[in-house]
Amino acid sequence: MSGGIGRQLNKGRNETEEEAADRKWGELIQEVRVAQTGVQILFGFLLTVVFQPGYEELGSTDRRIYLVTVVLGALTTGALIAPVALHRIVSGRRVKPQAVQWAARVTFTGLVLLLGTMTSALLLVLRVATHDGFVPYLVAGVLSWYILCWFVLPLWTRYRYTSK
Question: Is residue 79 within 8 Å of residue 106, measured between CB atoms?
Protein backbone atom coordinates (compact mmCIF):
# COMPACT_ATOMS: atom_id res chain seq x y z
CA MET A 1 0.00 0.00 0.00
CA SER A 2 2.96 2.32 0.18
CA GLY A 3 2.74 5.23 -2.22
CA GLY A 4 -0.98 5.66 -1.69
CA ILE A 5 -3.98 4.06 -3.31
CA GLY A 6 -3.65 6.20 -6.45
CA ARG A 7 -0.20 4.82 -7.18
CA GLN A 8 -1.10 1.25 -6.37
CA LEU A 9 -4.15 1.19 -8.65
CA ASN A 10 -2.59 3.26 -11.44
CA LYS A 11 -1.87 0.31 -13.72
CA GLY A 12 -3.71 1.74 -16.72
CA ARG A 13 -6.78 0.55 -18.51
CA ASN A 14 -7.12 -2.29 -20.93
CA GLU A 15 -8.66 -0.27 -23.76
CA THR A 16 -7.88 0.47 -27.37
CA GLU A 17 -6.87 3.92 -28.55
CA GLU A 18 -10.42 4.45 -29.83
CA GLU A 19 -11.98 3.32 -26.54
CA ALA A 20 -9.68 5.66 -24.63
CA ALA A 21 -10.60 8.49 -26.98
CA ASP A 22 -14.32 7.80 -26.45
CA ARG A 23 -13.88 7.84 -22.68
CA LYS A 24 -11.73 10.96 -22.70
CA TRP A 25 -14.18 12.70 -25.03
CA GLY A 26 -17.09 11.99 -22.66
CA GLU A 27 -15.11 13.28 -19.69
CA LEU A 28 -14.05 16.41 -21.58
CA ILE A 29 -17.59 17.24 -22.67
CA GLN A 30 -18.84 16.93 -19.09
CA GLU A 31 -16.12 19.35 -17.96
CA VAL A 32 -16.92 21.79 -20.76
CA ARG A 33 -20.63 21.74 -19.89
CA VAL A 34 -19.89 22.99 -16.40
CA ALA A 35 -17.64 25.84 -17.53
CA GLN A 36 -19.66 26.73 -20.61
CA THR A 37 -22.91 27.41 -18.77
CA GLY A 38 -21.33 29.87 -16.37
CA VAL A 39 -19.38 31.60 -19.13
CA GLN A 40 -22.45 32.04 -21.30
CA ILE A 41 -24.41 33.57 -18.41
CA LEU A 42 -21.52 35.90 -17.52
CA PHE A 43 -20.99 36.90 -21.16
CA GLY A 44 -24.70 37.55 -21.67
CA PHE A 45 -24.73 39.77 -18.60
CA LEU A 46 -21.65 41.64 -19.80
CA LEU A 47 -23.29 42.35 -23.15
CA THR A 48 -26.18 44.11 -21.45
CA VAL A 49 -24.06 46.47 -19.32
CA VAL A 50 -23.39 48.92 -22.13
CA PHE A 51 -27.15 49.46 -22.54
CA GLN A 52 -27.71 50.35 -18.88
CA PRO A 53 -28.14 54.02 -17.94
CA GLY A 54 -25.22 53.92 -15.50
CA TYR A 55 -22.75 52.98 -18.24
CA GLU A 56 -22.46 56.60 -19.31
CA GLU A 57 -21.25 57.50 -15.82
CA LEU A 58 -18.28 55.14 -15.94
CA GLY A 59 -14.86 56.75 -16.13
CA SER A 60 -12.45 56.01 -18.94
CA THR A 61 -10.49 53.41 -16.91
CA ASP A 62 -13.66 51.52 -16.01
CA ARG A 63 -14.80 51.62 -19.65
CA ARG A 64 -11.48 50.15 -20.74
CA ILE A 65 -11.76 47.42 -18.11
CA TYR A 66 -15.29 46.73 -19.35
CA LEU A 67 -14.13 46.45 -22.98
CA VAL A 68 -11.29 44.11 -22.02
CA THR A 69 -13.73 42.03 -19.98
CA VAL A 70 -16.21 41.76 -22.87
CA VAL A 71 -13.47 40.74 -25.31
CA LEU A 72 -12.12 38.18 -22.84
CA GLY A 73 -15.67 36.88 -22.34
CA ALA A 74 -16.12 36.52 -26.10
CA LEU A 75 -12.80 34.69 -26.45
CA THR A 76 -13.63 32.43 -23.51
CA THR A 77 -17.04 31.59 -24.95
CA GLY A 78 -15.46 30.76 -28.30
CA ALA A 79 -12.81 28.55 -26.74
CA LEU A 80 -15.29 26.61 -24.61
CA ILE A 81 -17.70 26.07 -27.51
CA ALA A 82 -14.87 25.06 -29.86
CA PRO A 83 -14.80 21.38 -28.78
CA VAL A 84 -18.42 21.00 -29.88
CA ALA A 85 -17.69 22.50 -33.30
CA LEU A 86 -14.52 20.41 -33.63
CA HIS A 87 -16.40 17.23 -32.82
CA ARG A 88 -19.22 18.03 -35.20
CA ILE A 89 -16.86 18.83 -38.11
CA VAL A 90 -14.58 15.79 -37.70
CA SER A 91 -17.22 13.29 -36.56
CA GLY A 92 -17.03 10.06 -38.55
CA ARG A 93 -13.57 10.86 -39.97
CA ARG A 94 -11.72 8.41 -37.70
CA VAL A 95 -9.65 11.11 -35.99
CA LYS A 96 -11.18 11.02 -32.53
CA PRO A 97 -7.87 10.61 -30.63
CA GLN A 98 -6.48 13.70 -32.37
CA ALA A 99 -9.76 15.58 -31.95
CA VAL A 100 -9.73 14.83 -28.21
CA GLN A 101 -6.17 16.21 -27.95
CA TRP A 102 -7.10 19.44 -29.74
CA ALA A 103 -10.36 19.79 -27.82
CA ALA A 104 -8.47 19.38 -24.53
CA ARG A 105 -5.98 22.07 -25.56
CA VAL A 106 -8.64 24.56 -26.56
CA THR A 107 -10.59 23.80 -23.37
CA PHE A 108 -7.50 24.53 -21.29
CA THR A 109 -7.07 27.78 -23.22
CA GLY A 110 -10.71 28.53 -22.40
CA LEU A 111 -10.00 28.02 -18.70
CA VAL A 112 -7.08 30.44 -18.85
CA LEU A 113 -9.28 32.97 -20.66
CA LEU A 114 -12.02 32.37 -18.08
CA LEU A 115 -9.49 33.24 -15.38
CA GLY A 116 -8.90 36.57 -17.12
CA THR A 117 -12.60 37.20 -17.70
CA MET A 118 -13.60 36.50 -14.11
CA THR A 119 -10.73 38.57 -12.74
CA SER A 120 -11.42 41.59 -14.92
CA ALA A 121 -15.17 41.38 -14.28
CA LEU A 122 -14.53 41.27 -10.54
CA LEU A 123 -12.16 44.22 -10.82
CA LEU A 124 -14.75 46.27 -12.71
CA VAL A 125 -17.61 45.44 -10.35
CA LEU A 126 -15.61 46.15 -7.21
CA ARG A 127 -14.19 49.41 -8.61
CA VAL A 128 -17.68 50.65 -9.48
CA ALA A 129 -19.22 49.38 -6.25
CA THR A 130 -16.65 50.65 -3.76
CA HIS A 131 -14.10 53.06 -5.29
CA ASP A 132 -11.81 51.95 -2.44
CA GLY A 133 -8.06 51.44 -2.63
CA PHE A 134 -8.29 47.88 -1.30
CA VAL A 135 -9.97 46.64 -4.51
CA PRO A 136 -6.73 45.59 -6.28
CA TYR A 137 -5.68 43.60 -3.20
CA LEU A 138 -9.05 41.90 -2.97
CA VAL A 139 -8.97 41.04 -6.67
CA ALA A 140 -5.40 39.75 -6.32
CA GLY A 141 -6.56 37.53 -3.45
CA VAL A 142 -9.43 36.10 -5.48
CA LEU A 143 -7.12 35.64 -8.49
CA SER A 144 -4.69 33.75 -6.25
CA TRP A 145 -7.55 31.55 -5.07
CA TYR A 146 -8.57 30.77 -8.67
CA ILE A 147 -4.97 29.92 -9.58
CA LEU A 148 -4.65 27.69 -6.51
CA CYS A 149 -7.92 25.84 -7.19
CA TRP A 150 -7.71 25.64 -10.98
CA PHE A 151 -4.01 25.10 -11.61
CA VAL A 152 -1.81 24.58 -8.53
CA LEU A 153 -3.93 21.88 -6.88
CA PRO A 154 -4.47 19.90 -10.11
CA LEU A 155 -0.79 20.17 -11.05
CA TRP A 156 0.28 19.14 -7.55
CA THR A 157 -2.13 16.18 -7.67
CA ARG A 158 -0.83 15.21 -11.10
CA TYR A 159 2.77 15.39 -9.88
CA ARG A 160 2.07 13.66 -6.56
CA TYR A 161 -0.10 10.77 -7.69
CA THR A 162 1.00 9.82 -11.18
CA SER A 163 3.84 7.49 -11.95
CA LYS A 164 6.97 8.83 -13.56
Answer: yes
